[in-house]
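Q: For a teaching handout, I want to show students what a protein-ligand complex looks like in token form. Below are the inputs, and the small molecule is magnesium ion. Please produce the holo structure.
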Amino acid sequence: MIHYKTKEEIELLRLSSLLVGRTLAIVAREIKPGITTAAIDKVAETFIMDNGGKPAFKGYRGFPGTLCVSPNSQIVHGIPGKYVLQDGDIISVDCGVLMNGFYGDSAFTFPVGNVKPEILKLLRVTKESLYKGIEKAIAGGRLGDISEAVQFHAESNGFSIVRELVGHGVGKSLHEDPEVPNYGRKGSGPKLAEGLVIAIEPMVNMGKRNVRQERDGWTITTADGLPSAHFEHTIAVGKESADILSSFVEIEQILEEQSR
Ligand code: MG
Ligand code: MG
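A: Here is the structure, written as tokens, with magnesium ion included.
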């Protein structure tokens, strides 16, 4: 069942989602060769707690971290730990926050130091796919419009879409109906209406779309070992355009500063 949100509830979802965006910006400052994923996780946890939120993933079905940190061929759900970031890596960081009874959920894939141009293209195209999907999150459309837009952009750039994992509704639960696949046909699926709040989260592989579950019970990696990227926003379906509740603005400012 889909829970449609009131305007007041959407403002609470925005506060949670913006705290996720600010947390990912703090993470952006930490990411560099030599740091462990556990150290990044600690910084994020402290920042969320200091700002009145609760890490949403910690303890979720027993997940041990505040962040999901997934370098290189890891797609999602990587566990923070001893891994030391290397020059040329990419790392997907997924963050969720609970505040005032509502969740926020957003993810960004960061380059670490000097990353090969073809891998930077994977990051760019995955993020563009997310925004192509968001452009279709308009009342009166269908959920499949979002799915198709994401899939078309990723695949027409020569990449593949992970199908085993999907986006989702966001509200008083971290994962609500409807599921938001990153592949599909336009004109299909549930009708989009104001009050629908969803996380759109393309996971795009450089090689084949097939995935593998690692023995830790969490980490999902590419079956062919090639890199994968993941970008996610929590958004509210709008009348003329979607309202993006999370934000990459601060993250992108930091990346811009670092590249100068
Ligand atoms: Mg997420
Ligand atoms: Mg999500």
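A: Two things your students might notice: The mean pLDDT is 98. The pocket of magnesium ion (ligand 1) is lined by residues 94, 96, 105, 107, 201, 232 (CB under 6 Å).
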